Amino acid sequence: MEAQRVQILSESGVANLPPSYIQPPSLRPQSSPSPSAPSIPTIDLSSPDPIPLLRRACSHWGAFHVINHGVPPALLQQIRSIGLQFFGSPMEDKARYACDLTVGPAAQGYGSRMLAKDDTVLDWRDYFDHHTLPEERRDPTKWPDFIPNYREVVTQYSKEMLHLANRLLSIISQSLTLPPSYLEDAVGDVYQNITVSFYPSCPRPDLALGLQAHSDMGAITLLIQDDVGGLEVLKDDKWVLVQPLTEAIVVILADMTEVITNGTYKSAVHRALVNANRARLSVATFYDPSKTRNIYPAPELITAENPAKYREVIYGDFVKSWYGQGPEGKRNIDALLIQ
Ligand SMILES: O=C(O)CCC(=O)C(=O)O
Ligand SMILES: [Fe+2]
């Protein structure tokens, strides 16, 4: 079965949204976000002591911008550029890199969500997923060869994102008075995936979502977007637009960080909106445990007054239950709550 490419639908100029992309009324984007809405916090990693701000950002938001993060702005521009070049290429070139769906839902390559159950609503999004770490998973021959420097840029970007994620996990650990390597050690061998998402312009952005509400499953996600905007984070039951900042990186805490910190820090529920005029591009880098890793709340953070809130889980089992059910706006992690 072939996936329907959203880009082809968009370019065909359909005036009506096909029914499989129409969200139920309660999940549709609100018509106009309040102009006074707050935005996610910004943390300057070159400041003498980012920890107090970081602590607030991690406990109240689960998402924040980092600036002065040490990743060369030119590299951020390059990865956005090769992503745009890929999606701007002829379909026959892109199709050579289509996800092999026979290997399961997490196949790498050029993909678009397919109907899993009769009642799933499709995302208005196409993507390209790269498996980058550990090195044994990396196969650059699965990445486009028809765009100059594509493979080199992805390789360099993977390295910089690993370095920044480890640096952030170290500061986050210290902000909880844990040893600097605590979270990195708790996650173990890193599984890193880099997903370039492409959201074509949509005839009815009021009825569709680029990506439905979800929290990321691993430890931490580093995301960059272009200047179009569309990423929203849920804060106190309200959707807050994440203002595009060209040189900043969005940090999103994911479910396993919430488990390890025993809920002191929250994984952020987020989604992507689409718009009628411009296509949007984002690049998300996921930092996940291996499928066999046991994840549990840090014993150091558990006391009589603050008992364990989550059950221990093998990461692969957690992922499997999620693929079975689909996110549908619910937090995956609620399944692990100890009542
Ligand atoms: O495109 C975005 O801004 C969000 C992407 C995202 O949340 C994801 O890929 O998990
Ligand atoms: Fe996400």
From TrEMBL:
Domain Fe2OG dioxygenase: residue ranges: 189-289
Low complexity compositional bias, start-end: 24-41
SUPFAM superfamilies: Clavaminate synthase-like (SSF51197)
Family note: Belongs to the iron/ascorbate-dependent oxidoreductase family.
Sorted UniProt keywords: Dioxygenase, Iron, Metal-binding, Oxidoreductase
InterPro entries: DIOX_N, IPNS-like_FE2OG_OXY, IPNS-like_sf, Oxoglu/Fe-dep_dioxygenase_dom, Plant_2OG-oxidoreductases
Name of the featured protein: Leucoanthocyanidin dioxygenase
Superkingdom, natural source: Eukaryota
Region of interest (Disordered), residue spans: 15-44
GO molecular function: dioxygenase activity; metal ion binding
Pfam families named in the record: 2OG-FeII_Oxy, DIOX_N
Lineage summary: Eukaryota, Viridiplantae, Streptophyta, Embryophyta, Tracheophyta
